[in-house]
Amino acid sequence: MPSLSASLFYKEIDRLQPISFDKVFQFDKFNSLCKGFVQLGRYSDLKNQTGIYDLQKGSGRKWTVERDMEHLKQSSRGHVDEHEVIRIVGKNPFLWHDHWPVEDYARVFECLVLVDEISKEADKVVSKIRQIGKKHRSKTEMIQSDFDANTESSSTATAPYIAVHMRVEIDWMIHCKKLEQRSGVNQICSSKQEIIERVGNIVSSESPTVVYLAVADSLLNDSSILSGWKKGLLPFEKKKLGVDGIYKKHSYLIQSAIDYEVCSRADIFVGNSFSTFSSLIVLERTQKMKRMGITRSCDIDVRWPSYAYNILGESNGPQKWMTNMSDSTLQAISYGSNAITC
Prior knowledge:
- Helices cover 37% and strands 12% of the residues.
- By secondary structure, the protein is α/β, with parallel strands linked by helices.
- It has 2 domains: 3-109, no CATH class; 116-335, no CATH class.
- The strands form 3 sheets. A 6-stranded mixed β-sheet has the order 7-6-5-8-9-10, with helices on both faces. A two-stranded antiparallel sheet has the order 1-2.
- The radius of gyration is 22 Å and the shape is globular.
């Protein structure tokens, strides 16, 4: 059973403590849904009659399938089969194995079900977002009905919301600027103004729409992210939404899991294509559409549209984003890319 950890590097060492997989996802549910494909085991299930065999793993992006196979062949010449537990040791690329096909990785995601505690916390946040959206839409429709006595329907039943993974925190800005220098790509970092402008050009909505800003508050050095939004878009972060108390009860990783779920459920999601967090949300949303028979969303209106604000799209808006499910490796998801299918 794997442990989960964060990848922060800006004065946040205390946040890097790993937590067990079953503190976030339902262990038995995972094994039930992924039966015949991949399974997890607990250390307590082992007889522990032998010591752990440490297998030194290669590191970096150059580690290939061929190197993996050769490495395993060399290891098998020893006494590795006598051990119940093989521990992989070494600095591995994030989301190892890189060489998993995207379709296989998406299948693993279908087996991930949040534990009830986290799921219920996400329910509270989503409910609060929709309640506020419904309240503002009701006010607008009441004003409109004063001028139009023939108003027949109400849009308040659904109160859709937009979730923006607004990567403007200190740790990201340090990372993305270095990444732009190394890669020679200038589409990685996005300023607050650029994000606000591009998100504002997605829809010309007459009804007020809540925009939930998913940011790591403790790493945010800018208190003005709620200012400058287009009329009709109502920006909320945790404190203004009144849900910061829900998040503060939990560790950094659990807070991220709640935010992930809130973003995943959004009617429209907007993120950064070089962020693993954003990429995984789009992967999951693409998988949902695929189950509905939709293989390409770029030219049509779909139920769960996603956008990358770091790439300029039509009408000065963000670029539409859909995961390439036929990709043979996870590189675009693991390390980010400006090639996002659409």
